[in-house]
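Letters spell out the chain; backbone shape is given numerically. Both lines appear below:
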Amino acid sequence: MTTVLILFAHGARDPAWRAPVDALARRLRASLPQVEVVPAFLESMPPTLDDAVATAVGAGATRIAVAPVFWAQGGHLKRDVPALLARVCAVHPGLRIDLWPVLGERDAVLDAIAADYRGLWTAGR
């Protein structure tokens, strides 16, 4: 393994909260079989971003993409995530880590949600 995609979400105390993140990881694994896709969480759930990166590096990862599974950029993505990534990079020098944009900044995501809501509206829900 040389490439890992980390789906980085907030986390919650309710274990059921992670179900959509795990479902997204399964879908991505099916469509990107050459990429290891793993979830990681900011708080309340394992693994942490630090742990997910350490596991990936231990398995031979040389490139990691971090996909924030957040709706918009708030304090966590503006302050906490850059600090987390700086710490991870200091522990693993030479590792390439790319931080992707949040979901609400992606036109394709907004288009897909709008299409789904439009379908719900026209179906009379």
The CA atoms of residues 12 and 44 lie 5 Å apart. The helical segments are 19-31, 49-58, 75-91, 107-122.
